[in-house]
Design a protein that fits this description.
The protein has two domains: 183 residues, Rossmann fold; 99 residues, Arc Repressor Mutant, subunit A (Orthogonal Bundle), CATH 1.10.10.10. It has eight helices and 15 strands. Bound molecules: glutamine. Glutamine binds next to helix 4.
Length: 314
């Protein structure tokens, strides 16, 4: 649904080691976001989202390795912030690639074949229906593009050519597209990309009671704003889980019964186990490995490693 409102500006990095990072930055700038060319790993820290652009994947892989980017990029992807590989970037995001002479970021469960469309079709264009992108088909430009041979759960295809060839895939906060979305002037995929994050990096996490919930959730709420029915639509499930996360005080450790009490105050269909699991799986809550303590990750680094925040941090 297009509300006509401009989304809050985000700070988005584009890896600028090689390839067409400038076009992505220009697109993001036109959308009102703050775009930065990223050349050093320490620049990743304050970003809301990151794009790995198209170019030459072996060259970018070499520069990633040579500039100490490999682990920082893997950590960035694991942090839950939206990360998108376009064309060569998609090759670098894949855990399985047919021929790349050194490791890429290897973060998405997809199998990618480089230069898969053959010399005779070095470049072509196609109109795509992309899951998550509303309105007219998205006009996509493919340039010596890779194809996504297979997506393995939790990755899933979000766009295919007419013959079924997968050309876009998503895995939680990660996105990979075979084509170049930055050169056609259509910003819908960039806009979609900026909505797919999870976890503490995402500003919408701190939603206060009721107000921040999308209107679409209204039919599922009772008179007291509690969720009375679990929605089937993933985006609504996510909105609700994100809303729940906002009810937890950052840096405070909760026992399982305390978590259940808090969840009981927000829903009526009596499935705290489902909500607890999704809060954890989607990165909104951390938990001790024996499940005895839960907490919302904050800036405190200990809370990332399975150790609940101590009393002093309350
Ligand atoms: N053919 C390039 C590679 O394999 C990708 C092309 C592109 O990013 N436009 O690295």
């Amino acid at each position: 649904m297009n509300t006509g409102q401009r989304p809050a500006p985000q700070t988005v990095g584009v890896l600028a080691l090689q390839g067409d990072f400038r076009e992505h930055c220009e697109m993001l700038g036109r959308m009102g976001h703050h775009a930065y060319e990223i050349r050093r790993p320490d620049q990743l820290r304050d970003l809301d989202a990151l794009i790995i652009p198209g170019g030459e994947s072996t060259t970018i892989a070499r520069l990633i390795e040579g500039n100490g980017f490999l682990e920082p990029l893997r950590d960035f992807c694991a942090s839950g912030r939206p990360t998108w590989g376009t064309c060569a970037g998609a090759i670098l995001m894949a855990k399985h690639v047919d021929n790349l002479d050194r490791p890429g970021i290897e973060t998405m469960d997809i199998r990618v074949r480089r230069n898969a469309f053959g010399r005779q079709v070095n470049s072509f264009e196609a109109d795509l229906d992309i899951k998550g992108v509303e309105g007219a088909p998205f006009h996509a430009v493919f340039i010596r593009a890779p194809l996504i041979e297979e997506t393995l759960p939790p990755a899933g295809a979000i766009a295919t050519l007419e013959d079924g060839t997968i050309v876009a895939a998503r895995q939680d906060n990660l996105l990979a597209t075979s084509f170049h979305p930055e050169i056609t002037g259509d910003s819908r995929l960039h806009a979609y990309f900026l909505t797919i994050g999870r976890g503490p990096g995402k500003k919408t996490l701190r939603v206060e009671n009721g107000d921040g919930l999308p209107r679409e959730l209204d039919p599922f709420l009772d008179g007291n704003g509690r969720l009375a029915q679990w929605p089937v639509k993933q985006s609504l499930q996510r909105a609700f889980i994100e809303h729940l996360a906002g009810a937890f005080e950052p840096g405070r450790s909760y026992t399982e019964p305390e978590v259940n009490d808090l969840l009981a105050a927000h829903h009526t269909f009596r499935d705290p186990a489902l909500l607890r699991r999704l809060l954890y799986d989607w990165g909104y809550l951390e938990r001790q490995s024996d499940g005895r303590a839960y907490w919302r990750p904050g800036s405190d680094t200990a809370s990332k490693s399975g150790v609940p925040p101590g009393e002093l941090q309350r």
